[in-house]
Amino acid sequence: MKLDSHRPDVAVQARRRNLQGLQQLRVSGWVKLLELPNPWSFDEALLLCPVSKDEWLAWIPDHGEAVLNIRQFSY
Fold it and tell me: How does pLDDT run across 19-70, given as a tens digit for each residue?
């Protein structure tokens, strides 16, 4: 089986988009949650500080603080 190195891989494209978006992430910025932590919480979160390269501590109205992976929200 021969691999086609010129054909972009879907996973690589998704990673590239995330890397560009990471530059937009900042403390005190609001992000849209892709899934709610509970049925009564808001659908947005306030970023408080980065925990690691893929995780942020965030405050979600009507829920409280949560550690979010960058895959759990859009920016």
Answer: 445 557 888 899 999 999 999 999 999 999 999 999 999 999 999 999 999 9
pTM of the model: 0.67
Are 68 and 58 in contact by the 8 Å Cβ rule? The answer is yes
CA 32 to centroid of chain Cα atoms: 9
**36 phi and psi angles, rounded to 5 deg:** -80, 140
φ, ψ of residue 12 in degrees (nearest 5): -65, -40
> How many angstroms separate the CA atoms of 45 and 62, rounded?
10
Helix H or strand E segment including 64: strand 64-69
Residue 73, number of CB atoms within 10 A of its CB: 21
Q: Are strands 73-74 and 30-33 parallel, antiparallel or unpaired?
A: antiparallel
Q: Which residues pair with 69 in a beta bridge?
A: 55
